[in-house]
Amino acid sequence: xxSAVEDTRKxxxxxxxxxxxxxxxxxxxxxxxxxxxxxxxxxxxxxLNEGRLDHILLHAIGPAITRAMxxxxxxxxxxxxxxxxxxxxxxxxxxxxxxxxxGNDGNTNSQTRKNSTITIKVFRSxxxxx
Length: 130
Description:
By secondary structure, the protein is an alpha+beta fold. The protein is elongated. The chain has helices spanning 37-49, 65-78; strands at 3-8, 11-17, 28-30, 55-61, 83-100, 109-124.
């Protein structure tokens, strides 16, 4: 996690950004900026082509939203009309820990910030005509 020094009224604090907490189902892919895009494509395509699943869910927050949208569109294009997409957007609250830089004060504060989210459902189309 990235940490930054933040100056507040009471002094300098080091901020630790916590990852969002989420559950992971067999048909869910959490898109981030770190994992290579081609690995995400291979995983999504494999899940859809196994035949057991009729849809997958792509989740992303913040800067990874564009990667999730690109992934969904790549799957739709590669499927030649076999897949369609449905998008839901929202906001999530993230909690960050603030600890004093000098370390003398044992008080740990927290702050809450908002971040945009997207969930994209990629599912098999009812009509397979282009």
